[in-house]
Structures are given as structure tokens and as C-alpha cells.
Amino acid sequence: MRVGLIGCGMAGSQRAVAVAGLPGFRLACVADVDAARARGSAERFGAAVEPEWSRLVRREDIDAVIVSSPPPLHREMCIEALQQGKHVLCEKPLARSPEECREMVHVAEQAGRVLATGFNYRFYPAVALAKRFLDSGQIGELDHVRSYTGHPGGSEFTHPWVHDPAVMGGGTLMDNGIHIVDLTRCFLGGVVEVKGFSTGRVWKFEGCEDNGFALLRSPSGKVAVLQASWTEWRGYRFWIEVYGTRGCVRASYPPMAAQVVWVDRPGRPARRRLHVFPMLQVMERLHSYRWTAQRSFMDELTAFARAVRGEPTPLASGRDGLKAVEIAHAVYRTVETGRSAFLEE
Q1: What distance in Å separates the CA atoms of residue 231 and residue 279, rounded to the nearest whole number?
Q2: Cα torsion at 344, 305, 67, 160 (round to 10°)?
Q3: How many CB atoms within 10 Å of residue 269?
Q4: 104 within 8 A of 133, measured Cβ to Cβ
Q5: From the CB of residue 274, how many other CB atoms can be counted at a distance below 10 Å?
Q6: What's the rounded Cα separation, in Å, for the pair 144 and 244?
Q7: pTM strictly above 0.90
């Protein structure tokens, strides 16, 4: 797969490393508003450079485009790439609003091309293992889900626009929280009702919540509760707990871990198993947390190529990206109205 990369910043550079590290993939061309940054990436990976992203998506030597630009540019860039016949993997969030996301999904369907959303947490080993435990029936039938993600803000705000609602479309729920919104919906099996709350007493960014809370209901009546935070003083972390009728499984990071607890039937003694992924811990000590992120990007790209071939994968589609943004914005509506918001699945 010949890949074009739009955006060579922090996330884009990690995407470039992932492409270069995979057999069967080649970084063919890059584009960035910072010409020096684009040249640096191109020289490192032997790629061509285009001064304008619109020229990159028109190149005939590119099969797919990774869009790793700020969210206000996602809609235009993805739509143009799709209309030029390219498959697209777009960084999260898919766009700033449900309306922008719907237009992108519609164009992808009309063009017959794959539009994927960069929810690489789906490919974290602990999360993938938790999904296997649920699907295998080891913890029984799904009952409810609890999830959390947070960081302390400050230096974790990697760009000033991260807390600009005109750029992100919201606060923590649209930023770091959008990952956990997607994972929760994925485990829950869809979301049709949302009730939410938010607070913003710490950072006081206008239009951006510091903490977002949501109560979700699935089409089959299953329930989830989630929180996204910019005031996690202990440092970055996320976890998701999936409860069934005979046990539960918890996936968390950092450190990467998955713990499953199950019983033969309610009331019987519980059995436990903890998975800690020792090789991953070693590689993170040698290469930092970026090693884990890049591995997830590589697994996501492999799934992206399989999706292009029409094979089933855990890859988050454009419609998955739309649903996550819909849920976040539904929380915002319920904060304003005090009433539940209802969605379609």
C-alpha cells in the first residue's frame, strides 16, 4: 500500500514510523504547512514532498491517505481524498461535529472507499484481550461497562488549540475522552440514549469541560458509565471494566494490564488471572511509551489494509468515528437541557 501523509507533527511523525516499519507499506509522499518539517520526514523515509495537501491527494502513486492534521481540516481533506479515489485513515476525532462527520461518511459510501477513524486504543493488547474474554463467554453475558480516561492538563495540552472548542468541538470528551467513548460503545454494542454532566472549574477554558460524565444505554438495555478528565493529578491513565453475569474483565494502561475474574455461577468462589505483557514493559523502558503507540498504529494500519480488501477487522470505521462524536455532543446537549438525548444505531 502506497501511503500519503498529511501532517508531519507529533502524531503524524509516529504514523510515518508505523508505515515505514511495516512490510507491504511505503510512505510515498508527505505534506505539511511547515515546509522544513515536511522535508525532514521525507528525507528520513525516502518519500516525496508536496507543498500543498490538495496536490498530494491527486497523485496517482498513492493508494491511501493518512490525515493527521487539526480537526477543522479533517472534513475538507478527507472528502477531497475520497473523491480522488483514495482510501482514508483519519486521526481522531473524525471531525468537530456530527454534521461534519456525517458528510464525510456519506462521501466515503458514495465513493466506495474505506474511511477509517484513528482509534488505535482498540489495538492495545489489554483491550484486545478484554474483548476476547467477553466474546468467548468466559465472563457470561454482558451486563454493564465502566470506563475512565484522564490526564492532568498543563503540559499534556500539546497544542493551544486542544482546548479551543472551535478547533476540537468540545473539551476533554472530544480530546482524550473520544478514545474511551469509542471503546465503551464498542464493548456496549451501541448507544441509543445518553445522559451527561460536566464541570469546568479548574482550567476554565470557555466552551471546554475539564470533566465530562456520561450514562449510556445500548439498544438491548445494557448500561455504561464513563468519565473523561483533564484533572487527573496522578498522571495520564485509562481503564475500561466490562461486567458480565459470571465475571468481569478490566483493561488498563499504563502499565498495560488485563485482569479477568470469573465464577462458574454466581455465589461460587471467584478465579482470577492477571496479564501484564512483560515484553511490552521492557520495550517501553527502552524506547518510552511511544513504542506502544507505534505498535498500535502498525496493527491499525494492517487492519486498514485488510478492510480495504473487504475483510472483517477491529478497525474503527468512519461511522464509528461519527458515533463517538455524536455521543460526546449528546452529552453537551443534555448538560444544556437537563434531559436525555436519544441516538440511532
Answers
A1: 31
A2: 80
A3: 6
A4: no
A5: 10
A6: 7
A7: yes
274 vs 216: CA distance, rounded Å = 28
122-287+316-342: which CATH architecture?
A: 2-Layer Sandwich (3.30)
Separation CA 36–CA 44 (nearest Å): 12
Query: How do the domains of the chain map onto residue ranges?
Result: 2-120, 122-287+316-342
CATH top class, domain 2-120 = alpha beta
Contact in structure between 343 and 192 (CB atoms under 8 Å): yes
Task: List Cβ neighbours of 52 (8 Å cut-off, separation of 6 or more).
Answer: 31
- For residue 195, list its beta bridge partners: 215
Q: Is 2-120's fold the same as 122-287+316-342's?
A: no
Q: Which of 213, 169, 184, 195 is nearest to 341 (CA)?
A: 195
Gyration radius from the chain CA atoms: 20
Query: How confident is the model over 193-227, as pLDDT tens digits?
Result: 999 999 999 999 999 999 999 999 999 999 999 99
Q: What distances in angstroms separate CA 146 from CA 133, 183, 228, 324, one per listed residue?
A: 16, 11, 12, 16
- Please write the tens of the pLDDT for every residue from 314-338: 999 999 999 999 999 999 999 999 9
Backbone angles phi, psi at 225, to 5 degrees: -130, 130
Give the chain's length. 345
Percentage of the residues of the chain whose pLDDT score is greater than 90: 97
